[in-house]
């Protein structure tokens, strides 16, 4: 009896063990999958629920936005209001002051799945990566690959540094180029120039550098004792011109090439950039200005080390979440042949430029800059203009304050004096949302047709 019981027990135990080992891997892996994905699914469901909130195409609800009655609410575009952003304010001004690159938002909505990131609660909590650096090597590799696709920069043999936007790298480069000089460096930029070179240099001014204004004034300087650092913006903000350094090499201790807009979106790429210090930003490449990530390619080891120590001292490196997001965006750009973002952005910007030019061409009161068609290394053909900004000029003698002329017509632009030239010029941003751009066209069309030269002629005759 006892023997029979033992045999049956052994048989059942072995059957149970066999079943356990056969079923276990499947069961475990399924269970694990369920367990592992549940937190990600929860995060995804939360993100999707917010994305589904209807803001009538004139606003957006965000996970970290305001909450009313426990639910996130719409943040409306300028000139739109109401709980679903469906109410347009007819008297509202077209605000085209800032360079906020929201024109790319629809691209990212079309690529919602490939560009979304889920960040685990324990994602990269350390101050450093495992190689003790502050840089994701994977992101570095992807950035180099994006430049190779865009054919806009030679990155081989150059060090890469990340900064809190390119804004921080501009300051880091001035620091690195000036710190060991025996007399203070004069920091210059040819006008019209991006205002932050002056405001930032003035803000951080110390015994090593000071802002000295227009580079063109120093171009033929006989003062060979000066140490000059030149910012070169190419293409230029505000006028879109491709630029080279103007200060002679004898007095220049270095040029900082700001290539924020050196992408096929905004300009033909005649040849890949290959300067000693080149600065780029995700803000104008993907449109993610809020991510605050810029990068610099630096040839010289010593300048690179000094820029690195500036970033280490100021920040201990750039947010790991920002780097993770940037990596995802770069991967999305590189999907397929990597051309899609550039083609989309070029088409959109050239379309905007054409519409604006058509309106301005009807007027004798206003003009905008001429941007020549050029051969583009990326498109492998001659291509037309697609600048980030219109540099508008009031042509009438009495219109010395062009910003005020536009303001009276309900258009908010950025005054020429901020770019170190006369206020006869105004910068109009073409980078903002479709709502902002369409309103600009509407207001400008009204201004041009109301204000045509015949009326002006009769009024003054
Ligand atoms: C010429 C130029 N450089 C740098 C920047 C700053 O960009 P970031 O967002 O990377 O700080 C801008 C922003 O508009 C710019 O126009």
Please give the order of strands in the largest beta sheet.
8-14-13-12-11-9-10
Number of domains: 3
Helix share, percent: 40-55%
Taking Cα atoms only, what radius of gyration do you get, to the nearest Å? 28 Å
Classified by CATH, the class of the largest domain is Alpha Beta
Query: How large is the share of residues in beta strands?
Result: 15-25%
Number of strands: 21
Name the average pLDDT. Answer: 91
Bound molecule types: pyridoxal-5'-phosphate
Low-confidence stretches: 19-33, 457-461
CATH topology of the largest domain: the name is Aspartate Aminotransferase, domain 2
Number of helices: 14
Oligomer description: single chain
- Describe the main β-sheet briefly: 7 strands, mixed
Span from first to last CA?
A: 128 Å
- The CATH architecture classification of the largest domain is 3-Layer(aba) Sandwich
Given the C-alpha coordinates, what overall shape results?
A: globular
CATH homologous superfamily (4th level) name of the largest domain? Type I PLP-dependent aspartate aminotransferase-like (Major domain)
- Structural class by sheet pairing and helices: alpha/beta
């Amino acid at each position: 009896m006892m023997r029979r019981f033992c045999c049956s027990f052994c048989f059942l135990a072995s059957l149970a063990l066999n079943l356990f080992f056969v079923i276990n891997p499947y069961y475990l892996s399924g269970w694990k999958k369920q367990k592992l994905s549940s937190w990600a699914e929860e995060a995804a469901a939360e993100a999707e629920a917010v994305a589904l909130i209807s803001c009538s195409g004139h606003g957006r609800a965000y996970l970290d936005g305001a909450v009313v009655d426990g639910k996130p609410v719409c943040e409306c575009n300028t000139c739109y209001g109401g709980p679903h952003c469906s109410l347009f304010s007819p008297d509202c001004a077209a605000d085209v002051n800032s360079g906020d690159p929201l024109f790319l938002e629809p691209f990212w909505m079309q690529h919602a799945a490939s560009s979304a990131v889920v960040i685990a609660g324990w994602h990269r909590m350390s101050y450093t990566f495992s190689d003790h650096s502050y840089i994701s090597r994977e992101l570095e590799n992807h950035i180099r690959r994006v430049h190779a696709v865009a054919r806009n920069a030679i990155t081989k043999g150059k060090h890469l540094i990340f900064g809190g936007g390119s804004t921080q790298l501009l300051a880091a480069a001035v620091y690195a180029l000036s710190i060991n000089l025996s007399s203070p460096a004069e920091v210059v930029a040819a006008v019209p120039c991006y205002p932050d070179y002056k405001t930032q240099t003035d803000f951080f001014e110390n015994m090593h550098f000071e802002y000295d204004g227009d580079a063109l004034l120093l171009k033929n300087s006989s003062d060979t004792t000066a140490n000059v650092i030149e910012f070169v913006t190419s293409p230029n903000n505000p006028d879109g011109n491709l630029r080279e350094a103007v200060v002679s090499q004898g007095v220049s201790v270095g040029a900082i090439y700001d290539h924020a807009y050196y992408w096929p979106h905004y300009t033909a790429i005649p040849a890949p950039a290959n300067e000693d210090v080149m600065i780029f930003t995700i803000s104008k490449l993907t449109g993610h200005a809020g991510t605050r990530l810029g990068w610099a390619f630096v040839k010289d080891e010593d300048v690179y080390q000094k820029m690195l120590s500036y970033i280490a001292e100021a920040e201990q490196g750039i947010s790991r979440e920002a780097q993770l997001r940037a990596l995802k965006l770069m991967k999305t750009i590189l999907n397929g042949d990597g051309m899609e973002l550039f083609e989309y952005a070029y088409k959109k910007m050239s379309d905007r430029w054409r519409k604006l030019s058509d309106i301005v061409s009807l007027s004798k009161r206003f003009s905008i800059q001429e941007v020549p068609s050029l051969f583009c290394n990326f498109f492998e053909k001659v291509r037309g203009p697609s600048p980030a900004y219109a540099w508008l000029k009031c042509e009438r003698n009495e219109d010395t304050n062009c910003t005020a002329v536009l303001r009276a017509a309900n258009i908010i632009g950025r005054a020429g004096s901020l770019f170190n030239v006369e206020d006869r010029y105004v910068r109009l941003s073409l980078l903002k949302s479709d709502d902002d751009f369409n309103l600009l066209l509407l207001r400008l069309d009204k201004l041009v047709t109301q204000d045509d030269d015949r009326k002006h002629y009769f009024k003054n005759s």
